Amino acid sequence: MNGIERDVPIVVVGLGSPIMCDDAIGLRISEAIESMNLPDVDCYQEAVGGLDILPVIHGYKHALIVDAIQTGQYEPGTILLFKEEDFDSTITDSSTHDVNLPTAIKIGRKMDPTIMPESIRFVAVEVEDIMTVTETMTPRLEAALPSAIDAALHVISEFRN
Prior knowledge:
Elements (H helix, E strand, L loop, with lengths): L9 E6 L9 H10 L6 E6 L7 H4 L4 E8 L9 E5 L17 H11 L7 E8 L12 H22 L1
Parallel strand pairs: 1-2, 1-3, 3-5
Antiparallel strand pairs: 4-5
Helix pairs in contact: 1-4
């Protein structure tokens, strides 16, 4: 086993801000899965990025990160599934003070691969508004929430196989 022992093999980390409109989607997905009380899944809701994600996922066999994404290429509410390698082109050699998530994961794997998850997957939901300060998501994101939860549950089922 790895250097950190966790009681369960899977972690779901919802990223975002509860007060920035659609940016709450990752938090809401993680909260919904947490309310299901799945015995082999820990859930966290975090407003972190970069290297701060590493202590949250250390020691788990599998990590699912759920978050908002704003590419402008898809309709708001579109659910996108990614594997770690899908972000290889976004990994940079920038300062550790401003590291994107894929770069942080690469750094974590280099620093201590024995405590990093074997597999990391991502469920991202294309958002419409992440600038308005409100605790309410836009109607299209609210409508996409059940499908996004289903997508996350699908990834969890793949982790189990």
